[in-house]
Amino acid sequence: MKELTLKNLDDFLRGTAFLGTGGGGNPYVGGLMLRQELEKGINCNLIKGSEVDDDALIIPIAVMGAPTVIVERLPNAKSCIKALRKMEELMGKKATALIGAEAGGINGTLPFILSSYTGLPVIDGDGMGRAFPELQMCTFGVYGVNCSPVIVRDEKDNEIIVNAENNHASEMFARVVCMQMGTKSEIALYPMTGKQMKETSVHHTCTLAYEIGKSIREARDTGKSPLNGIIDYFKTSFDKRFCKLLFEGKVTDLLRESTDGWAKGTVKLTSLSDPNQEMVVQLQNEFLIALVDNKPVAMVPDLICLVDLETAEPITAEDVKYGQRVNVIGVSVPENMRSKEALDTFGPVPFKVWDEYIPIEKIS
Amino acid sequence: MKELTLKNLDDFLRGTAFLGTGGGGNPYVGGLMLRQELEKGINCNLIKGSEVDDDALIIPIAVMGAPTVIVERLPNAKSCIKALRKMEELMGKKATALIGAEAGGINGTLPFILSSYTGLPVIDGDGMGRAFPELQMCTFGVYGVNCSPVIVRDEKDNEIIVNAENNHASEMFARVVCMQMGTKSEIALYPMTGKQMKETSVHHTCTLAYEIGKSIREARDTGKSPLNGIIDYFKTSFDKRFCKLLFEGKVTDLLRESTDGWAKGTVKLTSLSDPNQEMVVQLQNEFLIALVDNKPVAMVPDLICLVDLETAEPITAEDVKYGQRVNVIGVSVPENMRSKEALDTFGPVPFKVWDEYIPIEKIS
Hints:
The structure is a homodimer. The first copy, chain A, has helices at 6-19, 27-38, 67-70, 77-91, 106-118, 139-142, 167-180, 194-200, 205-221, 226-236, 340-346, 360-363, and strands at residues 3-4, 44-47, 57-65, 97-100, 122-123, 125-126, 150-153, 159-163, 184-188, 192-193, 202-203, 243-259, 262-271, 278-284, 286-292, 295-299, 303-308, 325-331. Chain A is an alpha+beta fold.
């Protein structure tokens, strides 16, 4: 993908929803905002990380909060731009490009929305190749970029600048501020050089999102199973990944609360082929672990994606409903998300969902 | 008072404890910090507000949090200085003088501690002539000074800058940050010009504190009743106030919790002369209202001060103990703390303790 246009927007949005693994904010909302801009004839340039100068200033922009809130209280583009400008002011130079903090969900689309307003290009990459609930859960930080200063803003022009002792502290201060703002804030964070961006990003994740979305649409259009469209895509894609259908089931129980600044809960699925077999998926904004008979079949940072049984349309955590029929798909993640440092930050142990990381391809 | 020295320190501390009306942080702690500096031979200059140029930059500094916490986790002078320097940086000029946000408690001594480090003079005045629990409860704000930017810091160099839409929002954001810091933070706030300081302060409150403390000591030294020392002082002082003994009693019940970032609770007293008569004092860091037979005898912003029955030593809310014998003294406040705007901010209605303000002299 070279640019985001009206033509490839729907495929891209579908892919960001898939990479969101339930979270990252509902891309439908970001899609509406982006479509409005693209309809004016604006295209948003996507550039490779390698195209950027080492000393350029790269600024990640995101919306922070609980997806259950953000679906009703939309991100504010003006507030995002003010966060960007404030960060430029603090850094003493202009940004060369934008990058998503996370490729999944609404935060996958947000850099493009800002690109349409500012003309800045978007870098094909992000800090996690998916979505995660906390600010320190980011390859930028895992590989040495300081999360602070974090600009935390809302549409009423409340603006809080966090400078914290470490990235986890940045998260904790930004989180209480975000909760005070009503659990939705526009943020700028992890300001970095072009060199840092090249070394710490998960690359090509915007293109990946687009191609995942496209594989689902093309399968639908040609009468093929959309599920197989996804699975076949990962076999041949530029970014080869292990991908597997983990479970085919019906939602038979659902607990979902907006608490501590997050959407937290559990989804219970009953197998369509064997009514005695159950899958339990735990979520904190994103789907964190999938267990069958109390044994994990996939866990963070690997992707656990719920898609509609018929259409393979990705389902976000706040859209999961009782009685829904879904396929649960597991996908592996790149090596820089599986290092010791990475797993210490966003593996199953810091999430307290399992006591050691087992790669999805080893479980299967 | 022209300067704070080792000679007048104890009187001053006793007076800040009295003006603290139970809160503002225990002045014992501030006294230890200040004595350490004064013993090096440093004196801290006190200047009148009227001596300062209209375009000077005046910066209030304070410690924020629950007194029950601050008595164990002391204010950090270096962190205060960093807050001061950050505020100067944001304002683009150097401070001419310091002023206390509140004259009561540890916040009455803090500007002098900073003065000893920086050489800056302290202005004889503050923003409430007492102590209050919330940042917007300040004559600076009541009469038009913006509470933001608020620099909220801790000893680990976590530094959060709050820019909020109004002074109440500044309080709410700073409060959640302070709680995240462990309910103790060093703050700089309400940056103002000399002109604003002259127009919005409660003046001469440092001298007032010193003279209250002195009146208690002199009564003790001459064998007079220390309680009468205080009452007589207010009859003849430069700052004439209504002052009255409200109750003579024993602490027979006490509820005190550190919650929501404050010390909150109730003190119940039984009269020493009539065991059927009770006084109830409600507190949120400070003593807010005193009721006898469910009828108020004094309420915010008037001062409600608990002092030891024998020595008239002021008792802070965290030092109140079961069985303690105390005198409860009520003192009126200056007119700029009783205007409609002032009462809308720190009267009994915003504190939700009574439905209208009744001046202490009218109740009596």
